[in-house]
Design a protein that fits this description.
alpha/beta, ABC transporter transmembrane region fold, Rossmann fold, six-stranded mixed sheet, four-stranded antiparallel sheet, 18 helices, 10 strands, 60% helix, disordered C terminus
């Protein structure tokens, strides 16, 4: 969980879970060496010494030859079985991946009526898994069979020599009987050693993926002995910031701006322009390529990462909840919060009355990822989390883009309580929601192409006006034609101003109520 966002973006959760499950074999590795492998080798050495004292060096050489051949064949076949086991593990993780994707996206499967397709896809992954499993067990048991043949040949050779020595009168009959009885004591350690090698190889192969995960270092981490960030004012500066997810394709280019303490900064622009990336860089999900990001003069790369993220209150576009009670979901934002703190935050987020209307109130479970709640309820729970966190800086990532206008009015009121006196960044889909912003940044193609207040940008007749015209579902020129001699940009300004005034009137009425 400490790994960076780029790692989680590239990995499938089902695959990771299966890797962790298989990696649990590491827990018994030390006990396996101490209590199984060690005693087996001790028994084998004692057996060699006993045979040497009972017979002679020739019998001991036969026994050692059998032992070495037995171990060599075991090691050779283990190499084959390790490769087969690795393919088996990959097929097993792929089966878990396909299964997890189908279950996690069941609504998409249902919407497109792709149940049969997913069933076929899963059946194919099961077939691949079964084929890989068969190949592994074939490789595993071929080695055991070959070793049994070696052991049989060795036993015949040893018994033949013992019979010859007895027939020549060079050894008593009792030695042959003793060898026959003791041979099993020699075979057993050899078989155990071979079995242990195969088991050890399987354990290590199963744990390979977990070991890789454990050795993976996060690409974003706190510097050694980094101090906690100290935020007194909340001034945020982006200073000539460059960033790219892929070095071949820059995402942000020379982005610079300053958010004064308590200001609301709105980020607008076309999809893919870099708005969300700015928020991710501020949260330090990724490190920038060049330039610097400072909060109250402190470069965020030089402060403790946990303290930095604890300073933010984030309301995402698509909030996700755990399948536990509402009160525990909200407490997740601040684990030491009391029930009274949570109720107060929910009142501020305008969700308390709704929660109280549920049969189990705050103890109601919400389903996986919060599926039992509506979009507006999810957003207000997310706002309650942010309020409970008491952040220094607030980040709103298109938090009202997927809800209706009536619900949005309620949420906007909760937003005002959350952002009051706090530096706030808003990624806006609906431009009518950010007209009050102290600074609007129009982001396009990785650059800040325009900046200013709503009124300043409207008068500038640039990209912001074009975004407004698209939002109103009509061309700027058509707006001008509808209003006669009024300039197109002034027409948009009139519509935008009317929207702003209507919103302000509605908010005032809501506050009075």
């Amino acid at each position: 969980m400490t790994l960076s966002m780029d790692f989680h973006n590239e990995k499938n959760s089902g695959e990771l879970i299966r890797a962790v499950e298989q990696g649990q074999h590491l827990q018994g590795l030390l006990e396996f060496f101490l209590f199984e492998v060690g005693p087996m080798f001790t028994d084998l050495i004692i057996g060699f010494v006993y045979v040497y004292t009972l017979f002679d060096v020739y019998m001991t050489l036969i026994l050692m030859g059998v032992g070495l051949a037995y171990i060599y064949i075991g090691a050779k076949t283990t190499t084959w079985s390790v490769k087969a086991r690795r393919n088996f593990n990959n097929a097993w993780r792929n089966e878990a991946k396909v299964q997890n994707e189908a279950i996690a996206n069941w609504s998409t499967v249902s919407h497109f009526n792709r149940g049969s397709y997913e069933k076929e896809r899963y059946s194919k992954s099961i077939d691949e898994f079964n084929a890989a499993e068969w190949k592994y067990y074939i490789a595993y048991y071929i080695g055991g069979s070959a070793q049994s043949v070696v052991m049989l040949i060795g036993r015949l050779a040893a018994f033949s020599m013992a019979v010859y020595r007895v027939a020549q009168g060079r050894a008593p009959v009792g030695n042959f009987v003793t060898l026959t009885l003791y041979w099993r004591s020699i075979e057993s350690p050899l078989m155990q050693v071979s079995w242990s090698v195969r088991r050890l190889s399987s354990m290590l192969t199963d744990s390979e993926r977990l070991l890789q995960l454990m050795m993976t270092k996060p690409t974003v981490a706190s510097a050694p002995d980094a101090p906690d960030i100290v935020i007194k004012e909340g001034e945020v500066e982006f200073d000539h910031v460059d960033f790219a997810y892929d070095p071949r394709r820059p995402t942000l280019k020379d982005v610079s701006f300053t958010a004064k303490p308590g200001q609301t900064i709105a980020l607008v622009g076309e999809t893919g322009g870099g708005k969300s990336t700015i928020i991710k860089l501020l949260y330090r999900y990724y490190d920038i390529g060049s330039g610097s990001i400072r909060i109250d003069g402190q470069d965020i790369r030089n402060v403790n990462l946990d303290s930095l993220r604890d300073s933010f209150g984030l309301v995402p576009q698509d909030p996700a909840l755990f399948n536990i009670s509402l009160i525990e979901n909200i407490r997740y934002a601040r684990l030491d919060a009391t029930d009274a703190d949570i109720v107060e935050a929910c009142r501020a987020a305008a969700i308390h009355d709704k929660i109280e209307s549920f049969p189990d109130g705050y103890k109601s479970t919400v389903g996986e990822r919060g599926v039992k709640l509506s979009g507006g309820e999810l957003q207000r729970v997310s706002i309650a989390r942010a309020i409970l966190r008491q952040p220094k800086i607030v980040l709103l990532d298109e938090a009202t883009s997927m809800i209706d206008a009536e619900t949005e009015a309620v949420i906007q009121k909760a937003f005002r309580r959350l952002t009051a006196g706090r530096t706030t960044f808003i990624i806006a889909h609906r431009l009518s929601t950010i007209q009050h912003a102290d600074l609007i940044l129009v982001v396009g193609d990785g650059r800040v192409v325009e900046r200013g207040t709503h009124e300043e940008l409207i008068q500038r007749r640039g990209k912001y006006v074009a975004l407004w015209s698209k939002q109103l579902s009509r061309d700027v020129g058509e707006v001008g034609e509808a209003l006669g001699d009024v300039e197109p940009e002034q027409a948009v300004l009139g519509v935008a101003t009317g929207t702003s005034e209507a919103t302000a009137t509605e908010e005032a009425g809501s506050d009075e109520r």
